Amino acid sequence: MRLDTKYLDTFISRSELRMIEEEAKEAHLSLENGTCPSADFLGWLHLPSSTKDAELKRIERIAKEIRKTSSVFIVIGIGGSYLGSRAALEFLSPGYAEDGPCKIYFAGNSIDPLYLSNLINKIKDKDITVNVISKSGTTIEPATAFRIIRDKVLKKRYSSQELKKRIIFTTTKGKGALSNMAKRGGYRCFYIPEDVGGRFSVLTPVGLLPMAVAGIDIKAVIKGAASIEAKSKTPSLETNLSYRYACLRNLLYRNGKKIEIACSFHTDLHYLLEWWKQLFAESEGKDGKGLFPATAIFSTDLHANGQLIQQGERNIFETFLCIKKKEADLKLGHDKDNIDKLNYISGKGLDLINKMAYKGTVLAHKDGNVPNMSITIDERSAFCLGELIYFFQRAVALSGLLLGINPFDQPGVQAYKDNMFRLLGRK
Ligand code: PA5
User: Which of 120, 225, 326, 425 is in Cβ range 3.0-4.6 Å of 390 for a Cys bridge?
Assistant: First the structure.
């Protein structure tokens, strides 16, 4: 992994960086010693290095069984119980195993009735396994989706004996409605460690079971994450790139850059950016503070928000996500008439044109006073996905502590729920 910060040089001074490195050292110690706020939510910190082989094997065994018995696998969850696995699947299994034996769908990440009824229509004649993921076991979006799918599809198709194989819960052991339902219905469960918060849970069965069903090498994901965990032992900004990123974004914020756009020229990184957005927004937006995390896929969005980024209010910086290894390519042919005037790039591939679009963009935005940095992974692989996941988890923890907030709680999420429950007449 590489972090390229050359376009920040004119925006951040060495002395600012030296100063924040001291703050980072303290924050690092509070994470490692468990003296930071919500220290009982630090289970994710050493999760990659402590994940047991037996746990991964159980996930792989059940994933194999699901692929054998089901042509459809529905993952029901929202927020941290959803975005990580969707990000992984978009990135490494585009089409969600569409051509494979078991197609994967997501549900319970909204309350839109049209989405769910379309999904129900699509799957009604298929062999289905459902994985309901909810740490609390009480979140309304997945709970309603599950009840509807269970009553309208599963119970109509399968005996209660068969349902024991086709309903799998991922939740907190011994707590919440899912745990109670599992006991009563005899459903199988995967457990989310109590000390791992929702948005930090992608490297638990929350993310790993859907990934394994999609055929992603989950051992490699964990290995990639563990490699960044190992590099995170030191707070040195020279070697700890995730801390370096966290410090730089904090300095930019202190200098008035309140909005961070995480962007990429790779379209199937879209959900990884969405996962990043949730991780950072829910962790940092507290006590009247927090960088606003936005996402963009370029060059698509250069034709949407490109104008604003180039010339709008100068409160933005960008973090680009790049992949080093060349992937698919399509060459432009020569056309003797050249009516489209593209012969100047005939013989060149879209990969090169995309790279030039990236270079042109970072330069234009820097010149337009939008600082930017780039994170580059080697290739589209399970290992590199693991690297990215842990890189950002570690970064957001440090970044939140540098901001002076508690990165591990989310008290503000309750407000809309309270109103909705009152409006729905919950007693
Ligand atoms: O990060 C978080 O804690 C949240 O985004 C949760 O993951 C989300 O609200 C879903 O919660 P639960 O898993 O309890 O259904």
Answer: 225
pTM across the whole model? 0.97
Whether 252 and 11 have beta carbons less than 8 Å apart is answered as: yes
What does the longest C-alpha to C-alpha distance in the chain come to? 74
> Looking at ligand 1, which atom is closest to the CA of residue 77?
15
**In DSSP terms, which residues pair with 161 in a beta bridge?**
none
Residue 282 a catalytic site member: yes
pLDDT at position 20, please?
97
The pLDDT assigned to 46 comes to 97
pLDDT at 98: 62
Ligand 1 neighbourhood includes 135 CB (under 6 angstroms): yes
Distance of CA 73 to the CA centre of its chain: 20
CA Rg value for the chain: 23
Probe target for ligand 1 pocket from 135, 138, 202, with the most ligand atoms within 8 Å of CB: 135
Q: Whose CA is nearest to atom 3 of ligand 1?
A: 198
**Residue 99: per-residue pLDDT:** 65
| Count of residues in the chain | 427
* Distance, CA of 233 to CA of 227 (rounded, Å): 11
Instruction: Give the model's pLDDT for residue 94.
Output: 72
Closest CA to 265 of 362, 147, 182: 362
From 268, 277, 324, 328, select the one nearest 89 (Cα to Cα): 268
Determine the pLDDT at residue 96: 66
| DSSP line for 117-135 | HHHHHHHTTS-EEEEEE-S
Residue 200 CA to ligand 1 centre (angstroms): 10
Q: How far is the CA of 357 from the centre of ligand 1 (A)?
A: 37
Instruction: Divide the 427 residues of the chain into consecutive groups of 10 and give the mean pLDDT of each group.
Output: 96 95 98 96 98 97 96 97 97 73 94 97 94 95 98 96 97 95 96 97 98 96 98 96 98 98 96 98 98 98 97 98 93 97 97 97 97 97 98 98 97 92 91
Catalytic residue among 52, 156, 303, 427: 303
* Nearest alpha carbon to residue 44 among 260, 169, 206: 206
Ligand 1 centre distance from Cα of residue 125 (Å): 31
Do 7 and 359 touch, CB atoms closer than 8 A? no
